[in-house]
């Protein structure tokens, strides 16, 4: 019997070599509007049990990144009055480090909860983020999925326009790099993968 399709070797190579790049090392250019739309469409084409669609993506342009940075810096300063200017500046720059900046949020689809447990809906959101990273790399750009404290702070979530029950799952930075990153250690295949057989 024939397998249903040919091997797409460039996709396999991409998946075997994809690496994140530190957002702070990113430089322009980021994807064009058209390229970004393609990347986001790849995100939307994610496994999603019963089409719960419990995820949303926000695209922040440079002005929006700056506004979020100022908000986070002010919030950080308020909560850490002892922090010096350097630390506050780090918080201001956090959302402004890459040409393209996405916020991916999760809000459970209550109507689907009876059939689709929350964890499945959340896993679909994580898969959406990974699709975006893979598509970003396929387009010739680099990406990094970050969270850190702003992702978990209720005031940041509210500032981004979300109500109670919405979680920030990812800040995704997309851009270019001057030099490609070094490889990092990867899991030992045999530590992770095993063959299971029923006991005799
Ligand atoms: C949910 C999630 C949150 C993450 N948050 C951070 C973060 O806040 N800071 C960080 O340095 N890496 C974070 N990472 C890890 C990076 O995205 C990335 O995996 C890491 O830099 C290693 O690069 P790699 O993708 O080439 O393995 C996070 C990853 C995931 C899946």
Task: Enumerate how many helices there are, as a single number.
Answer: 8
- The radius of gyration computed from the alpha-carbon positions, rounded to a whole number of angstroms, is 19 Å
**Strand fraction band?**
15-25%
How many β-strand stretches? Answer: 5
Shape: globular
Question: What oligomeric state best describes the polypeptide chains here?
Answer: single chain
Fold and architecture overview:
The protein is α+β, with helices and mostly antiparallel strands and 200 residues long. It has a domain at 21-64 and 100-177: NADH Oxidase. It contains eight helices and five strands, in the order αβαβααβαβααβα. Strands 1, 2, 3, 4 and 5 form a five-stranded antiparallel beta sheet that branches. α2 (33-44) runs antiparallel to α5 (118-138) and α3 (62-79) runs antiparallel to α4. The chain is globular. The model has no long low-confidence stretch (mean pLDDT 97). The site of flavin mononucleotide has 8 residues, from β4.
């Amino acid at each position: 019997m024939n397998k249903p399709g040919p091997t797409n070797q460039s996709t396999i190579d991409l998946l075997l070599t994809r690496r994140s790049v530190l957002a702070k090392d990113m430089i322009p250019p980021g994807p064009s509007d058209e390229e970004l739309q393609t990347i986001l469409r790849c995100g939307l084409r994610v496994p999603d049990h019963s089409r719960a669609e419990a995820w949303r993506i926000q695209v922040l342009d440079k002005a929006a990144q700056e506004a979020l940075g100022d908000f986070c810096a002010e919030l950080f300063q308020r909560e850490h009055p002892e922090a010096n200017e350097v630390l506050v500046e780090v918080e201001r720059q956090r959302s402004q480090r890459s040409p393209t900046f996405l916020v991916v949020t999760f809000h459970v689809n209550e109507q689907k909860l009876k059939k689709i447990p929350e964890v499945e809906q959340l896993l679909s959101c994580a898969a959406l983020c990974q699709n975006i990273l893979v598509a970003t790399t396929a387009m010739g750009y680099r990406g990094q999925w970050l969270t850190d404290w702003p992702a978990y702070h209720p005031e940041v979530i509210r500032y981004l326009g979300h109500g109670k029950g919405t979680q920030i799952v990812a800040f995704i930075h997309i851009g270019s790099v001057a030099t490609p990153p070094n490889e990092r250690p990867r899991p030992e295949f045999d530590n992770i993968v095993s063959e299971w057989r029923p006991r005799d």
